[in-house]
Amino acid sequence: MSDSTASAPATATASGRLAWIDTAKGIAITLVVLFHSTLYLGLAGAVGPLTVLNPLLDTFRMPLFFFMSGVLGARAVALPYRGLFQRRLVLLLWLYVVWVIAQQLYMQAMPPISPGAAPDSWWHLIDFLVIPNPNLWFIYALPIFFTVAWLTRRLPPVIPLAVAALVAVGFGTGFLHTGTAWDKMGRYFVFFLLALLIGDWVRSVAPRATWWHALAVTAVYAVTVAAAVKFQLLHVPFVLLGLGILAVVVGIAVSVVLARWRGFGILARLGSRTLPIYLVHTFPMIAVAAVIVATGVVIPSVVAAVVPILLCAASIAIALAVYTPLRDVPGIFTVPVASWATSSTTPARRQPDAVR
């Protein structure tokens, strides 16, 4: 496709949203759902090729997701903290509490999701404020990231960025380790801060990407990841960080190109609904894993190569089907009181989005 044939949706939609940003978010949330699909099926014993590939995508999905969060949140950090809290944080904090409790009660009611697994502990209903939920840690992390960024906003940007990079290296090498989602938060905060710093520049430069830019950086990324795996370099200092930065470049370039093709508009639509997908998608996966364990069914490896993809698609469809009739019910996908998320400088948001 030449630049002259690129269609208008490459830059903006009718609603004024940037289509390539929504496409990038759509790619990221799809990879997150696929990760959990493979994970839950693996816990139930349905192991396939994606089980091996999944860890490698760690270098792609969350760096891209947090970077896009920073691109979209850069201007909010300039607000007074009250405005930042009401515009960005209160919704995420509320939904984290509500959906962690819902997920924990659901897990308690379901049969085991892996052979020989001990019953899920009720203690997780209490400790989720200190130990981030392994499924919902992303919306736990964002309020913390925004707050730290706001507190350090008057420092020279290189200082918090350098500290965040060192923290990312510490967690990436295993030198820092908690065995919880705090490890992932430590690895990915740097991408959020980097986006806050260069977000406006990225918005202006990214639309110039062409298909050959996307192809070139994708090839470099693939070769680099393959080499890092082959020579066991993933835990060498700065390797994961470098791969994550390269992945962000790939994600943006590919998203700009795909946003020009109407056939990939579904990615932009998913990207405009990341939060409900993120909140709901693990529920059907838990149910499927529980059924597999309860029935003792054995899924052949050939079938296990396809099942995670089908479960990923079904879980996204179910999440959107749940969201559509419930999106305006107070407290489910929104705050229960509209004024909580309203200030003199920011209107209430009716349609939640995890990274806008």
Give the amount of beta strand, in percent. Answer: under 5%
Largest sheet features: none
Give me the strand/helix succession.
HHHHHHHHHHHHHHH
Name the overall outline. globular
Helix content range: 55-70%
Q: If you average the pLDDT, what whole number results?
A: 90
Low-confidence stretches: 1-10, 344-351
State the separation between the terminal residues, measured CA to CA.
30 Å
Total beta strands: 0
CA radius of gyration? 20 Å
Number of domains: 1
Summing up helix and strand content along with how strands pair, one would put the structural category as mainly alpha
Number of helices: 15
Transmembrane segments: 27-48, 60-78, 90-109, 129-151, 158-179, 185-202, 209-229, 235-258, 278-299, 305-323
InterPro entries: Acyl_transf_3_dom
GO molecular function: acyltransferase activity
Main location: membrane
Secondary-structure map:
Blueprint: H1 19-43, H2 49-53, H3 61-73, H4 81-109, H5 124-127, H6 137-151, H7 158-173, H8 182-205, H9 211-230, H10 239-258, H11 265-271, H12 274-280, H13 282-295, H14 301-304, H15 307-326
Helix pairs in contact: 1-3, 1-10, 1-11, 1-13, 1-15, 3-8, 3-10, 4-6, 6-8, 7-8, 9-10, 12-15, 13-15
Q: What do you see in this structure?
A:
This protein is mainly α. Helices cover 63% and strands 0% of the residues. It has one domain (20-341). The chain has helices spanning 19-43, 49-53, 61-73, 81-109, 124-127, 137-151, 158-173, 182-205, 211-230, 239-258, 265-271, 274-280, 282-295, 301-304, 307-326. It starts with 18 loop residues before the first helix and ends in a 30-residue tail after the last helix. The model is unreliable at 1-10 and 344-351 (pLDDT under 50). Keywords: Acyltransferase, Cell membrane, Membrane, Transferase, Transmembrane, Transmembrane helix.
